[in-house]
Design a protein that fits this description.
The protein is mainly α. 66% of the residues lie in helices and 4% in strands. It is extended and about 140 Å long. Keywords: Coiled coil.
Length: 722
């Protein structure tokens, strides 16, 4: 090349000028002036580029093997005799061949381009690659035969370089973030050190003030002597435990080292040529070294075992004196903290007293206001019904009416009247019309098309029949639905009249809603309640009676109120004190009664001829229902969703574990199964995404949980059990 400028323009514009092994072409689509300039440059290059003028044969000379030059293409036919003669002569004179001019031109171009680059910039390495990239493009364009292969190689390297650039660009923000985090940590360390210095100065002041009180506490030395003995004993036990743990750790470390040595032996046996030495010698040297190490380790362990627990007497006495001083300081500080705590408690009680006084005054004002409003309402409201008029209407006269109305409010008395009226109308019916087969929600024992006879049993007969059904249900395996079981029970008892008895009993239990046994049986038949609710309640009552019987050592059937309270608290550990108090009052305890009063506890569990339980068992049922409602309300509040919003299965699972951490997996899965009406098992991690698709409305979830036996299994973590 004559000058650097023409050389660069002719070599760099590979898209316009193509340098081949035998010819150089110019793009005729260039402008006229540029075209003439390019022609002049190419005419000059034709004089200098004599490298590839004889490349018809395509033979690549072996010049790089024997000389310091590049490839030379010879324009000879391999089949001619002259060709092989010249090849022989060429091989003899190859050692004297000079470097090809095309190679020299490329090297000169590369050298000048590298000198012209500004390597002080950040992208110097990227710029340094550009001349090499252009040289490689010249080769690709010049060697047509190898152009696809060379192009694929170039593209592979370009893609890898682009990938590396993207990774470097992605790591640059992390570097800045690391600097920021480092500065933040340094600031935190400085703040913690300043806080520690202030705390140390405060502790020093407290130490000086406590040292003045040491002389007044010498008389407590005798009482602390026993505590010191106990601490020494516990210290010896801890020392023995740590010593055992230390020996175990040493054995574990020895085992780990042995395993590592075995792994090294295996690696040496598999690759003996890596170290360049005899593997037998290496294995022998390694074995001897391990024996020396084991012997040294054994000696070291012996020395530690013999002298590890030896303490100089001077240090022991000093530590003992320091221990006594610290114990006295701790005692003084504890007394000071107790005094401060008592002061804080007194101040808190005083504030609460003032608040209660204000609340008392507010309550008095509200009482007066409510009394005034009551007087106004009594003057304008509808008078209460005179229930005494019902004595002559109800069958049985005043005595039966007083028995039915005992302890009931107006709403319950209305239900009693409706039952009396309905009972009379029910006895007047001779037949019942079948409900057919069409409705899918109709229980199986009522699916009948036609007329069935009214058997007209008494209320006592119906109750006895229900009790017999429950006894048989509890003794068999509960595989069938309760409604199917009930119809099979009627078939076994009444044969062909089973359908008539089914309708008769259904109409009776639907009517007598005030009777606890009939109401529960009706709810279970209509699937408003699960039979597990009734069974669990019966088991609870039986367990409570068993606990009371165990406390009654004399088997006299009586217990004191204090014993009853103790059994109730142990049987129902989650019930609060006011709930226990309600059960005590339902059992016969009053505020003017003493704990020594005797109680016939067996009478609390007696049922009358109509299946009605005593107030004590009835209060247990009421408390269970209220606790169940509170539990479901806690679930709703913990979900934080409206009733019409949807909740997923994992969300409900998490909520149940938060409000009731003591739930076992089987109970939790049964709750989720009932809430979403899908089989729920202990799902693996990969099926959590599928569970996200199981959703239901909050209202529907709560209604479904209301059906089954849902109760708290344990207290929340932040609140202790009552």
């Amino acid at each position: 090349m004559a000058s650097s400028t023409p050389q660069r323009s002719s070599l760099a514009t590979s898209s316009r000028i193509h340098l081949g092994p035998s010819k150089v072409t110019v793009d005729e689509h260039l402008p006229t002036e540029a075209y003439n300039a390019e022609k002049r440059k190419l005419s000059q290059k034709r004089k200098t580029l004599t490298l590839c003028q004889s490349s018809i044969c395509g033979y690549l000379s072996p010049w790089p093997t024997y000389a310091s030059g590049q490839t030379i293409l010879h324009n000879r036919k391999p089949c001619s005799d002259n060709y092989w003669k010249k090849i022989g002569g060429w091989k003899q004179s190859i050692l004297g061949t000079t470097k090809p001019r095309f190679l020299e031109q490329l090297e000169n171009y590369l050298r000048k381009e590298l000198l012209l680059l500004d390597l002080s910039a950040d992208s110097s390495q990227e710029l340094r690659l550009q001349p090499y990239r252009e040289i490689f493009e010249f080769f690709i364009e010049d060697f047509k035969t190898y152009k696809p292969l060379l192009s694929s190689i170039k593209n592979a390297y370009e893609m890898m370089l682009a990938h590396q650039r993207e990774e470097i660009r992605a790591l640059e923000p992390l570097k800045a973030k690391l600097v920021t985090v480092n500065e933040d940590c340094n600031e935190r360390i400085l703040a913690m050190r300043a806080e520690e210095r202030s705390e140390i100065s405060m502790l020093k002041k407290e130490k000086m003030s406590l040292l003045k009180l040491i002389d007044k506490k010498n008389e407590e030395k005798i009482s602390l002597q026993s505590e010191v003995t106990k601490l020494r004993k516990s210290l010896a036990e801890e020392y023995l435990r740590y010593l055992t743990e230390r020996d175990a750790r040493k054995i574990l470390i020895a085992d780990l080292n042995e395993l590592r040595y075995q792994r090294e032996d295996m690696s040496l046996a598999q690759s003996p040529g890596v170290w360049g030495e005899d593997p037998v010698k290496l294995a022998l040297a390694l074995k001897m070294t391990r024996q020396d190490l084991a012997r040294t380790q054994m000696e070291l362990n012996t020395m530690k075992a013999n002298f590890g627990d030896v303490v100089p007497r001077r240090d022991f006495e000093m530590q003992e004196k320091t221990n006594k001083d610290l114990q006295e300081q701790v005692l003084v500080g504890r007394q000071a903290r107790q005094l401060e705590s008592l002061r804080d408690d007194y101040e808190e009680v005083r504030k609460e007293h003032e608040i209660l006084l204000q609340l008392h005054m507010t309550t008095l004002k509200e009482r007066d206001q409510f009394y005034t409003e009551l007087q106004e309402i009594q003057g304008t409201s509808t008078p209460r019904p005179d229930w005494i008029k019902c004595e002559d209407v109800v069958a049985g006269g005043p005595e039966r009416w007083h028995m039915l109305a005992a302890g009931k409010n107006s709403d319950q008395l209305v239900d009693v009247l409706l039952e009396e009226i309905g009972e009379g109308l029910l006895r007047e019916k001779d037949f019942f019309q079948g409900l057919g087969y069409g409705e899918s929600i109709l229980p199986s024992f009522l699916r009948f098309d036609g007329v069935v006879q009214n058997k007209k049993p008494t209320k006592k007969d119906v109750i006895n029949l229900l009790k017999d059904a429950w006894k048989e249900r509890l003794t068999e395996e509960q595989k069938d639905k309760f409604s199917d079981f009930f119809f099979k029970f009627l078939e076994s008892r009444f044969g062909s009249d089973a359908m008539a008895w089914a309708y008769t009993i259904f109409e009776n239990i639907k009517l007598f809603r005030s009777n606890e046994l009939m109401r529960q049986f009706y709810d279970i038949l209509m699937e408003k309640k699960s039979e597990s609710v009734y069974i669990k309640q019966k088991e609870t009552v039986t367990q409570l009676l068993k606990e009371l019987t165990n406390v009654d050592n004399q088997n006299e059937g009586v217990l004191t109120m204090e014993q009853l309270s103790t059994v109730l608290k142990s049987t129902f550990p989650l019930k609060k004190e006011d709930k226990i108090q309600e059960l005590m009052e339902a059992g016969g305890w009053h505020t003017n009664s003493s704990n020594a009063d005797l109680l016939n506890y067996r009478s609390l569990f007696v049922e009358d001829e109509e299946g009605q339980t005593m107030p004590f068992v009835h209060k247990l049922w009421d408390q269970y229902m209220s606790e169940k409602d509170e539990y479901l309300q806690e679930i709703k509040q913990a979900l934080g969703l409206e009733l019409r919003e949807e909740v997923t299965l994992p969300k409900l699972r998490e909520t149940l574990m938060i409000i009731d951490p003591s739930l076992d997996k089987q109970t939790l899965n049964s709750y989720l199964n009932q809430a979403f009406q899908v089989p729920v098992i202990e799902a693996p991690e990969e099926s959590e995404d599928n569970q996200e698709n199981v959703v239901a409305q909050v209202r529907t979830v709560l209604e479904r949980l209301q059906i089954i036996d849902v109760r708290r299994k344990g207290p929340r973590e932040q609140e202790p059990a009552s």
